[in-house]
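Support case: zinc ion complex. Customer-provided input:
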Amino acid sequence: MVLGIETSCDETAAAVVRRTPAGGAEILSNVVLSQIEEHAAFGGVVPEIAARAHVEAIDGIVRAALIEAEVTLADIDAVAATVGPGLVGGLLVGAMTGKAIAAARGLPFLAINHLEGHALSPRLSDGVAYPYLLLLVSGGHSQILLVRALDDYERWGSTIDDALGEAFDKTAKLLSLPQPGGPNVEKMAAGGDPKRFALPRPMKGDARLDFSFSGLKTAVRLVAEAHAPLSDEDVADLCASFQRAAAETVADRVRRALIRFRETFPGLADPVLGVAGGVGANQAIRDALLTECEAAGARLVAPPLKLCSDNGAMIAYAGLERFEAGLIDRLDAPVRSRWPL
Ligand code: KG4
Ligand code: ZN
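Agent response - structure generated as follows:
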């Protein structure tokens, strides 16, 4: 049974996950406190405010995770905490808390890469077998990863500028929609015409598997400026057009990745594309991914939103797999603001 702690950005999170006798994984608790209100007035996450909010919340969140799981620290076998990548102030709070508990209770400590937490979440939610392909689309990352095995990841593509969630958030900001932008852009897009504005599909057709979203963001700005002042209908149409462009761009990249995946593992009985990151909640993106998977004979595994966005359960689960593999870390493991998987 592993306690997991996540504090790399603007969520203070803790969870308890255990291995069941049948070999599955069970989430006993998964407590997430969002700081979104604290940062709302600033239009983005302020690192100093984030670190202070983590300090204030972390003890209570860890306690809540234990209470919800109906366990005490005496039942915990190992402690896992995110040590990177992310905002260093927040990382220090979670890492020190995890290390303190491990030191006080004489438990093994597992220093987790946040991206590994996302990468393994399809195994936590659906027991997906290695190897599989993962699309990670969040506010900070847009990547296509080959998840070969535990501790064996290959980055096939990543963004050369903005992350996809960032593009959603910046589009929302430009159109004066509240943050986080993704869900609000999706809401507005529901009543809009996705064909009204012609927006680019960056990197479409490119043989590499990378993403680029800054050109799309700029195109949205130019359209908004050309049509100012925007009516509600204009905003809805622009959101719909942006979302369609984003979904088609992601679909194009994933189509190529799936081809490469099938070529790399020709005999694989159950090829899987997993989705992680907050943008995985977007229905238009999910629909586009489903279409690509069906065409490629692959299975789409999109974990529930609570496991797609930042959470402690994915960190506890990554810790569980590392613990079982004997990949224990020292208590002086450093935090790392940058740490590619
Ligand atoms: O994974 P996450 O919770 O946090 C990290 O960035 O690590 O992802 C948050 C991102 C934000 O950019 C948010 O706008 C986006 O995911 N997002 C969405 C939706 N829900 C969240 N983007 C598009 N459509 C959504 N429904
Ligand atoms: Zn994340």
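Strands lie at 2-6, 11-19, 25-34, 78-84, 109-113, 132-137, 142-149, 152-158, 272-276, 299-301.

Case will auto-close in a few days if no follow-up is received.
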